[in-house]
Amino acid sequence: MSIFTRYAMDALMKTTHPEINRKQCWNLHPHRTPCTACKDICPYGEEIFTRPNLVKDWDPCTDCGLCVSVCRSGCIAPSPEQVQRDTAPADNDNDTVWIGCEKSTRKNTLVRSCVSALSWEALAYLALNKKVVLDLTPCGECENDICAEHLRKELTRLVEFFGQPLFEARFTLAYEQDEAPFHNKEYSRREMMEQVTAGSKAGTKQLLRMLPGLRSDDESAVDFRLMLHQRTKQLKAVSKTPLKYGYHLPNFTEKCFACGRCEKACRAGAIKFEDLPDGQTRAVITPWKCSECGVCVATCSNGGLDGLKLRQLTTLGPVSVYKCTKTLCSECGKPIAPGCKDGICSVCRIKIRTKKRQEEAVAKAKERQAEREAKRAAEEAAKALAEEVKAEETAAAETAAAPAAAETAQTAEPIANIVKE
């Protein structure tokens, strides 16, 4: 077996399931309610996920893609096989792509375990290349409420992205068996050979993308959005009046002073603050990198972000959404709110307050030490004075007692002589 074949087989064996980038998980960021969407929608949730961002065993995984489409922060990246399988119908010669689930009895181009397993980005990419027919005939009898609710969200998001007129022109929702019947184009012998060679080239290219080292972790999580961005760029280049696409972007308010917390919190790198020559700072967002998760909004504690706002864009490339004049802290040079009175940030304010308290504590300690030393010196002086007074009293008493002893001795001597006689 050659080295190329061995690497190719290893890559195929290792990438037949989604990949999880734990640092982008919603549960690792400030939030009020934990997200368990991937574990809840997965048919083998308890067998695969020990918790939403930690996998116990991938063996039961069928690569259905439900966890990929439902992940709100984009931390679950689709496998290369899923990307190839979901986007391959965009390259065929048919003008329409029929998408249905495994329970459908009609013939469809793309069959998945559930229609909601295709993310709205993948459906949008297909719709920008072909007309899409969604076979929803089994949905009325389906008892999976989680998938049905997710499918409604995906369709709502597609309507917001395309707009109602363009959505109705590109999508057909088939609720009955005889609506939008499937038909396949008949190929000549030459067209069949061209299709075979084109499929071989596409497969080889996809195989090369799956080799180790050629697919970085940062790019793997945005496969569908990146392809959607590239397709919108192509359409904009060839059309006189470019289409507008609805995308939810962070809504900056006047309270934003470019502190950069949202930029650090966005693991996808969708938010960037750039300093302009005129002294202003602008916030630049790359929509195709943004997963509309809302982590940046949850991170902002200054009220600078007011949720996500639906904007009409002609491209999914970088777009400037906000400008402000940055005010810097006089101590550390970090951005601060313009209305700050003392001109310093909260961290420096705490440091100065702490330093002041420490200095006051040291001064009080020195004062107490001086008081103790003065008290000790006063006590020692009083003790010495008491000892001196006591010594003087003792000496005075001894001096007073000496004449009395002499008189007693003089009186006692004659008495002693009389007794002797």
UniProtKB/TrEMBL annotation:
Residues 394-413 have a biased composition (Low complexity). Gene3D superfamilies: 3.30.70.20. It holds the Pfam family Fer4_7. Residues 52-81, 246-276, 281-310 form the 4Fe-4S ferredoxin-type domain. Residues 389-421 are annotated as: Disordered. This is (4Fe-4S)-binding protein.
